[in-house]
Amino acid sequence: MMGNTPQGGIENIVADTALSIQDLTVRFHLKRGILTAVDHISFDIARGETFGLVGESGSGKTVTARAIMRLLPTPPAEIASGRVVLDDQSVYDLSSEELRAIRGRKIAMVFQEPMSALNPVFTVGAQMTDVLRTNLKMSRAEARERAVELLQLVGIPSAGSRLGSYVHEFSGGMRQRVMLAMALSCNPGFLIADEPTTALDVTIQATILELIDSMIHRLGMSLLFITHNLGVVAHSCDRIGVMYASHLVETGTTRAIFANPQHPYTVGLLESIPRLADQKRYLTPIPGTVCNMLEPPQGCKFHPRCPHAMDVCREQAPPLREVAPGHLAACHLHAMATV
Ligand code: SF4
């Protein structure tokens, strides 16, 4: 299991690290001002590990994923600090050609909305075989055979005949399966899944989550799973990182985060998950809303919503500290506990 570096720190990469995010800061230069969407975050994901990045909308999760893939438009986005290392390669030092070579083959991404990632004017078969022929230099016949295998792998019935279908001819769940098949087509070692079930009916969500889980384990991949729902990562991720208002505020094993959350925001997220076994308990929402990221509060960005806020919280941003082996939290309460 990998450790995390405190925010702002850069450490040597341990041998079995698949992906290392080091001191990453992403800003957007907007007409209304400068918005810091990701603020000095660092975490590592080991080979074969599944890591869930959790937080409310606007916390910086998707920007982090897109920064890893170098999919952010620059401008208005700017990588203001840090680096992303994938399999010992610094992603931001790659040429456009080198970047194209690792996308799909080393790292692939499944998006929240398949329609934004799949081309509506080409058949699914044309899109899949194009990827296979370009990246793996397969012949037309080999690419077609592999595309059928991939669609079968993700559970598309009558895969051979569905190659001639367009994206709009698939249901939402089937589109997400197609996108997963495309993401897996070049055998990447690392998959990023960005809210892959949010746009789906609840009944389909569990099926897609199980499918991603089984693919990851079957193919021995590493996974960065992005979601606003802590409950979703409970069974599928080895470790969790919690983001709030552009900061990584807590990270640790899934077991530790659920059994002993150390940041008041994580506690709030956990209390807002419905539990079947406790039907009498009312859900406790986190009061207030995420701060305006163009004018964030001083100090700890969670202080306007935190039931434990103290004077120091309004003045100083708490650093990420280790509160137990492999378990880090950014909260002044822990500094007080250790003095
Ligand atoms: Fe709450 Fe202060 Fe901890 Fe922020 S630093 S989470 S305001 S106690």
Strand content: 15-25%
Shape: globular
Biggest β-sheet strands, sense, barrel: 8 strands, mixed
Please state the second-level CATH architecture: 3-Layer(aba) Sandwich
Structural class: alpha/beta
CATH top level class name: Alpha Beta
Q: Any idea how many domains?
A: 1
Strand order of the largest sheet: 6-7-8-3-9-10-12-11
- Kindly report how far apart the N and C termini lie: 29 Å
**Ligand identities:** iron/sulfur cluster
Order of helices and strands: EEEHEEHEHHHHHEHEHEEHHHEEH
List unreliable stretches of 5+ residues: 1-13
CATH topology: Rossmann fold
> What's the overall average pLDDT, rounded?
85
CATH superfamily: P-loop containing nucleotide triphosphate hydrolases
Q: Number of helix segments?
A: 13
* Helical residues, percent: 25-40%
- Supply Rg: 21 Å
Q: Report the count of strand segments.
A: 12
The oligomerization state is single chain
List the helices and strands and how they pair.
Layout: E1 17-30, E2 33-46, E3 50-54, H1 61-69, E4 77-86, E5 89-90, H2 96-102, E6 107-110, H3 114-117, H4 124-136, H5 140-153, H6 159-162, H7 172-184, E7 190-194, H8 202-219, E8 222-227, H9 230-233, E9 239-244, E10 247-253, H10 254-259, H11 264-271, H12 311-315, E11 321-324, E12 327-329, H13 332-338
Parallel strand pairs: 3-8, 3-9, 6-7, 7-8
Antiparallel strand pairs: 1-2, 1-4, 4-5, 9-10, 10-12, 11-12
Helix pairs in contact: 4-5, 5-7, 7-8
The chain binds iron/sulfur cluster.
The site of iron/sulfur cluster (SF4) has 14 residues, from α13.
What does this structure look like?
The protein is built from 13 helices and 12 strands. 33% of the residues lie in helices and 24% in strands. The strands form 2 sheets. It has an 8-stranded mixed β-sheet, sandwiched between helices. The relative contact order is 0.14. The chain is of the alpha/beta class and 339 residues long. It has a single domain (10-106, 188-338), classed as Rossmann fold. Iron/sulfur cluster (SF4) binds next to helix 13. Iron/sulfur cluster (SF4) is lined by residues 263-264, 300, 302-303, 306, 308-310, 313, 318, 331-333.
